[in-house]
Queue: 4 jobs
Job 1
Amino acid sequence: MTDNMTPPDDCTTMTEVRAGVDALDRDLVSLLARRFGYMRAAARIKPAREAVRDEGRKAEVIANAVAEARRHDLPAHIVAAMWETLVEGSIAYELAEWDETRA
C-alpha cells in the first residue's frame, strides 16, 4: 500500500489530491488482481459450472461490504452498487476461467 502520499485532511493542493487518488487507484488494482486470483482458484476448485453463481454468497459479500462501509461512515448505497458490479464481474470472470480450465 502507498505510504508516502499526503493524507487527505493534510492536502492543500489539487496536485496532492490527484497524486493520492492515483496512488490509491494503483493499490486498488493490485488488490483486485489478488481478488481475481481467488476467483481463478474458485473456478479450479468448484466441481460444476452451476456452482459458480451462488446468490446467497453474493448477497453475503455485498452485505459485508455495506457493513464495512457503514463502519467507515461511507455512503452504503454507493458501496452496494460498486460491490454489485464487482461481484457480477467476478462471476463472469470465474465462469470464463471455469470454462477455460475444462476446455
Job 2
Amino acid sequence: MREGDTRIVLGLHRSRYERRVLTGALEAGVDAVDTSFSYHGFSAHTALATAGRGLLPHFRISTKVGFFPTASQAEHSLAPERLREAIEQSNRDLGRAPDLVFLHNPERSLSAPLPVAQERLATACAAVEEAATAGLCGGWGVSSWDARLLPRLVDVSLPRPDVVMVRAGLLAGSEVLHASEALAVRWDLKPAQLWGMSPFGGDPLDALWGKIDPRLFIHAADAGLSPVQAAFRVSYWLPRVGRVAVGTDNPSHLRELVDALRYEADADSLHTYRRLLRQRVQRVGQ
C-alpha cells in the first residue's frame, strides 16, 4: 500500500461498486471516495457499505444531496426538510456519518428572481450546515456542475462552506472556469478548499485525447507521461484546486493518475491557453 495522497478523490458516479475498486484505491494510496445519495439508482450508499465492509473506516467519504427519486425520474429540490432526511438516510445506509456532504448542483433549483434564488440557496446551505453541526457529517460543501449562476447569489449573509467542488480541466470551458474562480473569491476559499471534478470532460477514453497533446502544458514532461496523465495533472490548475475527484473502476488507471502527480504544470502555457479561451468566448459573443 502506498502512502496516502490527499490530492485524489475516487469518484463513484459510474462505478460498479466492487470491492476490488476500493482495495485498489487503498493500494494506490487513494483513501478518499466521493459518491451521492442519487448515484447507482439511489442505492450508492448501500452498495458502497456492502462492497466496502471492513474497508470504509480507512476512507474519508464525501457524498451529495439534492436529487430525489420519483415514480419516473429523479427530481431536484433544495427543500431543507428533504435535504435533512437524505443526510439522515445516508448515515443509515453507510453505517457511519460521511466526512463531507455537498449540496448537489444547487443551480438546478435557482432559476428564479435574484432575491428568491438567493434566499433559496441560503436556506439550503443552512440546512446542510446544521446537519454538520448536529454530527450527521464532518463538514459540508457545495458541488456545482455549472457554477455560472452562483457567484451573484453569494454574499456575506450566506453560510460559508468548508469545500466547493466544480468542473475542472481543459474541457471545462472559459465561462465555467471564470465562475468557479469567482465563487471561490466570493466565499473566500483557499485552493485547498476548492475541489475539481470531471477532469476528462466525462471520458478519459475519448478520441479527443489522441488528437491533442496536453503534455504541452506540463513542465519538463518526459516521454513516459501519457496524454491522459497530462490532462489529469493540468486539471489541478484549471481552476486552481487542491483535490480532484476522478472516476475509474480500473485500479491500474488510478495508479497511473497517482503517478502523474509528480509532474508540474507549465504556468506560461496555461496562461496562454486561458487567454485564448477568453478570446474565443468574446468572438462568439460578438
Job 3
Amino acid sequence: MIALVLLGAGAGLGLWALLVWTVPPRPPLAELMSRLNSIPAPPPILVTGTGGWAVRLGSPFTGVLRAAGLPGPTVSQDLAIVERSPETHLAEKAALALTGLLLPAAVGALLALGGRPLAWPVPLGASLALAAAGFLLPDTTVRAEAERRREAFRHALGAYLNLIHVLLAGGAGVDGALTDAAGVGQGWSFRQLRRALDTAQLTRTSPWTTLRQIGEELQISELTELAAALSLAGTEGAKVRASLAAKAAAMRQRAGTEAEGKANAATERMALPGVLMAFGFIIFVFYPALTQITNAL
C-alpha cells in the first residue's frame, strides 16, 4: 500500500512537471508592456555562491519550483544577504523534502523485512510531516542567518561611522573618508562596503548612490539614512560630521539596548530548566507516599 501511494504521488508529480514544462504559464500583457518600458535595474552588489550536495540531488526539481513562483521576494533578499543562489536554495528544499518523504518508507520496508511491519498510516504520516519540515527548513535557516548578518552589519556600521567622523575631523574629504574608513575594517560587513565603493568608482557614480543601493538590498535603514546624509554633504555642502557622530552614538545605544534585552530573555529561558527539575524532584519525593495512599484505598 505504501509503495502504491508513493508511486502514485511520484507519477502525479512527474505528470504535473511535464505539463508545466510543455505548457508554461503566459504572463499577462500588462506585465510584458511594463518590462518593455521599464528602466533596467542596476546589477546587484551582493554576490551569491553555489555548490553543495543538495544541488546535485535536487537540481532536477528546481525548474518545477521556479515555475511555482519560488523563492518569494523576501526569501530572495535573504538569499542575497547570505550569498546563496536561488537555484542552490531550491535544490536544498527539494532534496530535504525528498529525503524526508522517502526515509520513513525505507524504515517501514526494513521493519517489514525484519518481521515487524507497521500500519501503513504511520510511515505515510511520518513521510508527509518530514517532507513538509524538510521543505520549510531551508527558509527558516536562511532567514535566521540573514538576520544575524544584518545585526552584525549594524554593529560594523557604527564603527564605520566613528572612523568617518575621525577622518573628517582630520581634514579628509567625504569621498576619501568613506574609502579609507572602509579599508580599515575586516569581515563580511566591511567587504560589502568596499565592494559598494569600488562599484561606485568603476561605474563613475557617487558613493552614496551605491551605499543607498546596498542598504536597500540588505534592508538596513541606517545605511540608507547614511547615504542620504552623505548626499547632502556632497551636493549641498552640508556639515555632516556632527550628524554622523550623533548617528553613531544612537546606533551604539540601540545595540546596547538590544543586547540587554537578549540577555534578559536568555536569563528567563534559563529559569525553565530549573522549574522542570524542581517539579521532577517534587514528583520523585511524593510518588512513594501517593502510591501508599492509593494502595491503602
Job 4
Amino acid sequence: MSTTTSDHPSRNAATLLDWRPENPTFWHETGQRIATRNLWISIPALLLAFAVWMLMSAVVVKLRDVGFAFTDDQLFWLTALPALSGATLRIFYSFMVPVFGGRRWTAISTASLILPCLWLGVAVQDPATPYWHFVAIALLCGLGGGNFASSMSNISFFFPKEKQGYALGMNAGLGNLGVSTTQFVVPLVIASGIFGALGGGGVVTAATQKAPAGILYLQNAGFIWVPFLLLCVLLSWFGMNDLAAARSSLAEQSAIFRRKHNWLMCVLYLGTFGSFIGFSAGFPMLIKTQFPQVNPLSYAWLGPLVGALARPVGGWLSDKTGGAPMTFWVFLSMIAGVFGVIWFLPSHGSGGNFAGFLAMFMLLFVATGVGNASTFRMIPVIFRAFHERGVAAADEQARQFAVRQAGLESAAVVGFSSAIAAYGGFFVPRSYGTSIAMTGGPHAALYGFVAFYVACVVITWWWYFRKGAEAPC
C-alpha cells in the first residue's frame, strides 16, 4: 500500500483525505468497501487484545503447579491488575486515533501486546522470578484492555450513523470473544510442547485428586499469541487506512468533558459493559463459593461467549429500533436477571439451584451484550443531533463543521465511556468478595447492582426514551 495521502479512496492510499460516509453516493460507490475492510482487520486485532487482557486470569491458577509459592492474595492481585490498568489506559487511548491515525495506532497498540506475552513466557519458566515481574506483566496485559477504546473510536469514523450500531457491535462483539478464546486456548497449549526446543522445557506436575501427574508448558500461554499478533500488526499497517477527516487535537476532543451526555452515557455503559466484564471476571469465583460441588471452569466460558455473540445482534436490532428503546428494556431485563440469580442462590450455605442460577446468569450476559451495542448506538445519534440543532439555520460550511465536530466528539465519548466502564472488571468481583466477607453471601452486592440498574432505567427513560425526551435516540 502506498503511504501517501489521497483524496481518492479507490486508490487505497494509507491516509484518505476525502471521507464522506453520510453521502449516500460516496458510501455505496467507494466508502462501504473501504470501511468494511478496515472493520474486518480491526476485529481480529481487538480479539487478540481481549485475549491478552484476560491472559493472567488463565495463568495464575497454574503458577503454583510450576513451583511458584505466591499467596492467594498475591494471585488475586495478579488477576485484578490488568482490569485496573486496562481501564485507566482506555482514558488515554480514547483520544489517540484522531492524533496518530487509526491505521498507525492500531498497528502500534497491537505490537505493544507482544511484550507482555514474551515476558510472561520467559518469567514462568523460572520459579525464582520475583513477584514484581508478574505485577509488571499483569499491568502490561492491561494494554489489551486499552486497545478497545481506540479500536471502537476508530471504527466509528468509518461508518454512517445508521450503520454504526452494526459496525460497532461487530467490532466489539467479535472482539469480546477474546475472553472466551483465552479460556479455551490456554489449557490446550500448556499441555504440550508445541514450540519444541524454541519454547523451552516443561515442568512435571504432581498428581492430585483432580488430575494425574503431567508435564506443563505454561510458557506457551504467552508465546502462543505472538505470531498472531505479528500477523495483525502487518495487516493493520498495510491494510487499514488513516482518515484525515478524523484528525483533531486533544483540545478539540476535550470538549466532551463539558457535555452532560458524555457523563450520562458513561453511567449507562458502566451498567452494560462494566457488568459484562465484571460478571466475566467474577462468574467462576461466584460459582466456586456458592456451588462448591460444581467445577467452575466447566462453565466459566459460557457467559462471556453468549454475551459477546449477543453484541452484534444488539447492534443490528438497535439500528432497526433505536438505541434508547433497546437500552431501556435491557436494564429492565438485567434487574429481572439479578433477582433470578438471588432466587436460585443457596441461603445460609444450603439449598440453591445451579441450573436456575446458570440460566439467570446467561440472561444477564445476553442482556449486557445487547446493551453494549445499544448504548454505543445512542452516542453518535445524540451528538449529531446536539450539533445540528446549533446550526439549523446556518450555511453549508457551518453544517459540515458541525457534522465533523459531532463525529469527533462521538468517537471520543465512545472511547472515554468504555474506559469508565472497564473499571467494572475490578469492582464487580470485589463487590462479591466484600459482600461475602461481611454478610456471608453475595446477596448484598447483587441488591446493590439492582439499585444501580434502576438508576440506569431512569436515566435512559428521562433523557432518551420518553416522549419529549431531551435527546431521543
